[in-house]
Protein 1
Amino acid sequence: MKIWRIGSNWGKQIDLIPIFKKYNISFAGLEVQELMNGVSSGDLICITKGQSIEAVAKVKSITDLERVEISLADDFDFVKALQIEDLFFLNDFSLKSETYGGQGKQFHEVHGKYFNLIYKLFSDLKALFMNSKIESLLTYKKQIILQGPPGTGKTWMAKKIAKELIVPQDLGSPKELINSFFKEFNGSSPDVQAKRLEKERLLTQFQSKFPKEELRNISLESYCIGTGGRDNFCWWIERGLSNIGGYSPGSSRTYLIYFSQKDDEYKTYFRSLKAFEGVNTPQEGIKVVGGFLSDLVSKENLDGIDEFPFGWGYMIKILSSYYPNKFFPANGEKYMTNMLNLFGVNSSGKSPIEKNLLIQGFFQKKKVEFAVDVTSYEFMIWMDTHFDLKGEVEYNNRNLISKGESKLIQFHPAYTYEDFVRGIVVETTDENKTEYKVVNKVLAEFALKALNNKSSNYVLIIDEINRANLPSVLGELIYALEYRFDPENPKETSVESMYSLRDEGELDASEGRILSLPRNLYLIGTMNTADRSVGHIDYAIRRRFAFVDVLPSINPISNALAKEMFEKVSKFFVSNYQEVIYTQASPKRADTLMPDFRPEDVWIGHSYFLTDKKVEQEANDEIKIKMRYEVLPLLKEYVKDGILRSDDTKSNDPVQKLIQELSKL
C-alpha cells in the first residue's frame, strides 16, 4: 500500500474539495499522468489545501477518461480519474485539520512520518465512521449484537457507543418550549375532541356512581379494592380514571381498608392514626373513611386538610376527579416539584396540595395568555412526554439538560427471566412476617426509567449475550423487541408478563402484567464467536437484532514488539494479512486454520497485544507477559479443540514453532 498526496489548488488552480464532496471522484490531469501509473487499488489518498489536510480516502480503481464535464473544473482536460471509497472529511467529524508540513509537489507519493500520520488519520476516521454507522443502525433497529473473536474490543466499543448515545443534550429554554406548546396546540382536531369526549364520559360515570353527597354512607363493597371487581371507589381512583391522571398507591393498604382474597376478608390498615382510635373492625372503619371522604370533597376551602388520614396523592386524585377545572391532574410530589421548577416557580415550603394549585394557576394563566382551547390533562401529557418529571430536572444556564443512562450486565448459563425481566423476591413485613413480592428486574426497571424520561436515551449493554438461554430469558419480550411501545397504540405495542406486579384479585391481575419497551431504550449485546460451547441464537431472536462484525485490527497497537507478535499470530488465521490490515479486504482462511472455521470467528484480537506503558522496555516486558500467559494458552487451546492445524511431531510445524517461541519469552 502507498499513500498519495493531492494538493487542492493544483493544475489550473482547481479547488478539489467541492469536487470530492460532490462526485466522490478525484481527477488527475496531464502533468501527473506518469505518477498516476503508480497508483493502485487500496492506496490511500490525502487531499490537502495549502499545508492543511482536509480529507483522506482509499483508492477503489483507476479509470481512463477522454474528458469529464465538470463545471467546477473550468474546462480542465482530465485524462485519468481515481475512483475512491471511504472518503472522510475531517470537518465532518469535528476534527482539526492536520498540518502536512509544506505544499511541495501538488501530486506525489508520501513517505516517512507523514505516511504514518496519514495512515493513522485514515484509520481513526474509519473507526469514528464505523461507530457512527453503528449508532445509526442502533437508532433504527433499537438492538444490535457486536460479534467477533476474542480480544477485538467488543465490550469497549459497546461502552463507547453507549457513551455517545447518552451525551447530555441541551433541550433549550423550558419557558420557550412551553410557550410553543400553547401557541401551536390545536384543540379543534378530531382526535383531540374524541379523547375529550371519552374523558368526560368517564368522569360523568364516576361522579354518578359516587355522588359527593352520598360518600359519607359509602359501603365496604362500594369502597374497597381487592375483590376483583371494577366498580368500587378505589378501583376508579386508581385504574378507571387513569386516563385522566395517573395515581399509583404502591399498596392496597394506602386506602386504609381493603379486601384480601388470600384471607377472604376485609382488612384494615389504620396504623396508629388518631382518627381511628377505638375503631376495631372494617365495618366501623368504613364509617370513619366515608366521613373523611365526604368532608374532603365538600370543603370550600382546604383548611385542616393536612390532618386527614389519607396520603396527599390520594386526596389530590380524588379532588381532581370531582373538580377537574380547579385541581391539576398530577399528584406525585416530586413530579409536581419538577413541573414547577420548569415553570420557574419557587415551591419551597409548599404542601403538595399547594403545589398542585400553583400548577393549575400557571396553566390557567397560559391558557388565557395564548387564548387557546386546551385542557389541563392535555398540557400534562405534553409535559410528561417532553420532560423527565419523575427524575431529576437538570439545568445549564436555565436551559433544560436531557441526561440518559447506560448500564452493563453480563449473561451466564444460569441467568433467567426472573433475573432479567421480572421475578419474585422475599420481603419481611412490618409484622415480621415473610411475604413474597413480584418486582421488576434489570430490563423492566430500565425500561420504566426510559418511559419516564422520553427526551433521553437509555442503553443496556448485555455482555456475553449468547451465554444465556435467550428464548427462556427474554420470554414474551421477543415480541416487544420488534414492536416498541407506542402511546397511541398501547395494547398492540405491549406484552403481558408471566408475573403480575399486583396480587391476584387486587384489581385485575392482568393490568399488572403489562410490559412495554420504549423507543428510547437501546440494547447492545456482545458475542464471542469463537466460543462454541454457548447457547445458539435461534432465527426468531436473530431477526430482532442487527449483527455487526468486530474484527482484529492493528491500528490500536503502537508497540513494535506487539505489532510483530500480532502479525505472526494473525497469519495462522488469515492468508491475506497485508490486504486485510491495510485495505480492509475480506479475510481468507490460512492453511493452518481448519476448514470448519472462519477467520472472522476465531482470529485472536488486538486487545491481547495492547499496552499502556510509555517506556519501551516496560511496554516490551508487559507484551511478553501477555504473549506467554494469555496468547500462548489460547493458541494451545485452539490446537486442542481442532481450530488450528498443527502437528507437534514435525519440527518445522509453524504453529508449534511459534508456541515454542512464546514459551521462551
Protein 2
Amino acid sequence: MPTIARLPDLLISQIAAGEVVERPASVLKELLENSLDAGSTAIQVHLEEGGVKLIRITDDGCGIARDELALALTRHATSKIASLDDLERVASFGFRGEALASVAAVARLAITSRERGAAHAWKLRGENGAEPEPAALMAGTVVEMRDLYYNTPARRKFLKSESTEFAHCADAVRRLALTRPDVAISLTHNGRSLFQLAPADRARRIAEVVGDDFVTASRTVDAAAGPISLTGFAIDPTRASEAKDGQNVFVNGRFVRDKIIGHALREAYRDVLHGARQPAVCLFLEIDPGLVDVNVHPAKTEVRFRDSRAVHQFVYHAIQRTLATPIQATEPAPVNENREQTTVFAEKKPWTSPASTAPTFPPPLRHQGSLGVAEPAATAYLAFAQAAQRPVTTSMGAADAPQFRPEVPVDRDGPPLGYALAQLHGIYILAQNAGGLIVVDMHAAHERILYEKLKTAFDSRQVATQNLLIPAVFSADPVDVAAVEEHADALADLGFQIAPLGPGQLGVRAVPALLQSGDPAALARSLIADLREHGITQLATARRNELLATMACHGAVRARRQLTIPEMNALLRQMEETERAGQCNHGRPTWTALSLDELDKLFLRGR
C-alpha cells in the first residue's frame, strides 16, 4: 500500500505555479501589481521574445529591506494581510504571497531592491541557498524573470507563438495602465519602445490606451448609491461593433471578468444594439471592500459580491439611464474667418425651448395627429409652424413645383435636431440646426417614440384605446380564435379588443390609440402569434418589450408617407424628448448629422 509522504517544497511551488503562472502575461500581471502596491509612480516594462526569455519590471516604489528579500520568495509571505479581517477587506492588488515563489519555481528570478533611506541596494537570486549581495540601484525595485519554464519543458510546449504571447502581455500592461492613470508606464519589446504613458487624468489615459475613437463614440457614466459607484465610458449603441473583447470592467481597480456585471450590461443594451453588436465599455466599479470577495480565483480575475442582485440592478440602471438620456444640444464653436457661424458637435447640454419662442395663437381645437399623438391643430408645437404656413414663391414657374420652407431659423441656442427643411424620397427628413444638416429616418425615429410611450403606458396600466368605426376582420385558425378567447383580459390590458366573428374569423374592434395609424389586422396577427408561442406569463416579463417593439414597428409611420413641415417638426421635437431616441427598437440609428465643416470638405470650400 502506498505511503503518505510530504511533497518537496519545490514541487509544491511548481504545482502552485500551475494555477498562478499560466503564461508570460500571468507573470507580468503579478509583478506589475506588486509594483503598484509598492506605491510606484513610474514603472518600466522590458520584454524579450514575448516575455518568455525576459520580463524585467523596474519601479520607483518603497523597495524591500535586505532582511525581507529572502522571505519575499517564500510561499504565503506577504505584507498586505495579517488577519482574517484584512482578508475580508482586501484593498491591494496582490495579497496571497504566492506570485514570487511560484515564478521562482518555474523560471530564473532575480530581485534588486533599495528600501527608501537605505545606503545601497541589495540583489537576491531565486536559487536555493542564495544570499543577498550589494547592488547598484537609485531607488525602488527591479524584478527580472528569465527563461520561463526552463525546468518544466512539457509546459513550455503549450505556449503560443512569440507574437501571441506578447499580445497577451501588452493587454496586461494596458489594463493595469487603465486602472492607475496617475502612474507613468512604458513598454519595450525586443529593444523597441511600444508606448510611454505619462501620468494623466482617467479620460486621457483611456483615450491613450483604448483609443480616442472609443472615447468620442461613448457616453460618460457617472452613478453612485451608498457604498457603490460606477464611472467610466459606455459605447453609444450606434457606434458599437461586433468585437467581443471590448469590455474593460474594473472592480476596486482590479480587472475582472464577472458574469453578473456582464449580464447587467447586456440587459441594459438589449433593445438599442443592432444585430450581433456588443456593448464596449470601460467601467470602474468602486464598492466597499467588505462587500466583495476577491479571494475566489488564483489569478484574481473573478470576484464574488455579497449581494450580487443589488450590484446587478445598480449597474443595469446606471447604464440604462446613461443610454436613455434624451438627445442633447451641442455647444457652438467659435466663429471662423470663412463662415459666419460653425458648430462642432462636442460639448453637450440639455436644450429647452425659450419662452420667447412659444406661440401666441388662441387655444385651438385638438385633433388626433397623423403621428399618433394629440397635436394642437394651429400651434403645431412651436412657433416654427408660423413660418411654415407662409406662402412661398419660387423661380421654377411650374404650378406643381415643390414648396420649400422659407427663412428656416438658424438658432445657436435652438433645438438639437433643428427645424425641418424637406422630405427625401418619403423616407428621410432633412433638417437644419446650428451645426449643419440633420438627416432623420422617420420610420425608425417614430418607431422608437411609440415604443417608449407604449412601455410607459403599459407600466402605468394606462393604455388608451381607440375604437374602430368598422371592425378590421381577418381569417384565423381555430387555435388563434381559442387564444383570443383565453387571453381576452390580457389583450384588453394591451389596448386591444379582438372578438371571434365566426369559427374562422376574428374582428379587431379597438386598438391602442398610439397605434391607430397602423394596420389593425397586422397588429392583431403579430400579437396573437406571440401569445400562442410564449403565453401571457412570459409575455408579461421577458417577452413584453419585444412584443411592444413589434407593435410600435407596425404602428410607426411608413416609408413613402408624405409628411407636412409641421408634422416633421413635431416628430423632431418628440425625438428630443424621448429616451434612447438615437436608435430604433432594432438598434439601428435614427438620425445622423453632417456638420458645416464636413459639408465644406465635400464641396472643397476654402481650398
